[in-house]
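Same chain as my last thread, 341 residues:
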Amino acid sequence: MTTATLIAGIPAHNDTLYHRIRFAVGDPAACLELPEGRLLIVRDIEMDRARTQAHADRVACPADFTPEGGLDGDRETATAQAAAEALRQHGIQEVVSDRTLGLLFVEQLRVAGISLRLDPNLGVAERRQKDTNELEMLHECQCVTESAVRMACERIAAATPNADGILLDDGEPLTSERMQATIDIFLLQQGFAGSDSIVAGAKDGGDCHERGTGALRTEEPIIVDIFPRSARNRYNGDCTRTVVHGAISDQVQRMHSAVVAAKEAAVGTLRTGVKGSAVHQATVDTLKAHGFAFGFPGKDHPSDAVTMPHGTGHGLGLSVHEPPLLDDKGVALVKGDVVTI
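reply #2:
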């Protein structure tokens, strides 16, 4: 049986497809790994650019592989039809595809009588093993991300509280929304897309991934979590810090000490071949040793219960959340993995 590989979608949104062809367009595309080489099907107006920029042996457009009944007027359907016709013309009987393949492509393969097999790891392993160039791009992204976090924390720390404890900046209440906008502007000036940054104070900060709303207050921990994507290289940074304006309570000091120790334990466990679950367990054990619980608080817990309800970290690359996970079922780490802790 003659087999080929198909990865398809919109490269500007499908990170696995972009990683393979290194060509970002906002229209549908299909990458076919054929016995003769890599065929990339793109919109006709993108062909010249694709020939010079994309990682492909041959570039074509849907019209080059028009099926007997003609191409549909919808671009995505037409691309799927052309991909199926190209596979048929090359005598392909079976296609292996990844977890991102859309049903339009699945249906056109069915119509063409080509069997389909899912490889859930297709594209995942390649993206995990970052090469030198990717590591350099991620380093650049992380440097900008950390500078944005520093800017935000320093802005909060320099604010002036009013009599009610609300932080003021230039005489106006400093809110989560103002800080989020300030972060977005800072990132845009550095060539990064806005990231739905989190600036969450008080109870908002205890709700994982709550972006935060309303006025920020003195003597309360404020979560700053920034995870932008570079508009130039499409890779992401990710950094979370906690800032307190004014006096820091004993409880927050204890929490901070526990987190610093847990991070150190996790980093010390991190190496090729170790499972992500082992890295996570090092975090959990350290937090418990400092007197803190793990998991979501139960219904009988007090409203101010302190726990860690999530994993230790995740992979970072073209997606801000990607394999491997540093969590209960985390797999073995491989050379080239880039992870957050």
